[in-house]
Amino acid sequence: MGIARNDADFFVPEYGLVGLRPCDSHEVSQLNELKIDTTFILEVQHVWDLGAILMIEQMPIVGGYVGTVEQASISNVATHLASFGMFGASYHLDGPVHVRWGITTAREALQVAGHTARAIDANLDVLIANQYYPLAGPCTEMCLLETAAQTITDACSGRELASGVASAKGVAEDYTTGIEARVMGEVAIAATKLSPEQANEVLNNILALYEKNYKEYAVMGGKGKKFHECYDTVKIVPTEEHLKVYENAMKKLEECGVPLQGIW
User: Fold this and answer.
1) Homologous superfamily of 22-255 in CATH?
2) pLDDT for 44-95, tens place per residue?
3) pTM of the predicted protein model
4) 138 and 177 Cβ atoms separated by less than 8 Å
């Protein structure tokens, strides 16, 4: 079974191909916005020559060169079309990111992700994914609420894959744990029971819980804890404190309307 890995592959005479295997997901990134260069083309050709799985990634910057939600959504759809129509991607990894906060869980970023996925899912038979960069770090309720909001957006707009979770914006070393991915999976299952209209209502409830905290949490680590601070590093299980944070977040999600009964 292949896995998604981003490290480069290279050839060692004694051992053959080291690093990525053809059955692994090889990531090549487009440039912002709607740009490609010769390096990108060469990387795509390398993956094709290898006969490997080609995952093309691009994170449109909402509020940047494509300033509005509508502009970013149109640009994002075009980026998907380029991945599949021009470069033959096996799947496309999305990730609309907010220009001010650098996260994928802001309201505007979720709107772009949802509109884009709905458009692609309604018109193409392709695999689309989204990557997760919440502002808050591990062992905080906010991190799990952010993760849940994006998961609901993705599950209810037709995405097949979720890639995460890069907690604390993915820029702080050792600030990610398995609990965030667990919430992503459990909420995805629950979200399949929601209609788009119900999902919008639930999302408004969840966003109201964490949007007001952006400035407070906009520091390295997002007031979270490193892996070794919230996991037993020998048994690789979460601490009691981390489990309590998880339980509190899941209860809040249920209060917001996420049908989690019997799932967590």
Assistant:
1) Monomethylamine methyltransferase MtmB (3.20.20.460)
2) 999 999 899 999 999 999 999 988 999 999 999 999 999 999 999 999 999 9
3) 0.91
4) yes
Strands 237-238 vs 231-232: parallel, antiparallel or unpaired: antiparallel
Q: How many residues does the chain have?
A: 264
Domain chopping of the chain, boundaries: 22-255
Q: Which of 220, 213, 147, 215 minimizes the C-alpha distance to 177?
A: 147
The pair of structure tokens assigned to 95 is 């990730």
Q: Do 158 and 191 touch, CB atoms closer than 8 A?
A: no
- Tokens representing residue 210 in the block: 């964490």
Provide the 8-state DSSP code for 83: I
Q: pLDDT, tens digit, for every residue of 227-244?
A: 999 999 999 999 999 999
C-beta atoms surrounding 80 within 10 Å: 21
**Residue ranges in 124-239 assigned as alpha helix (H):** 141-157, 178-191, 196-210, 214-217, 227-230
DSSP letter for each residue of 54-74: EEEE---EETTTB-SHHHHHH
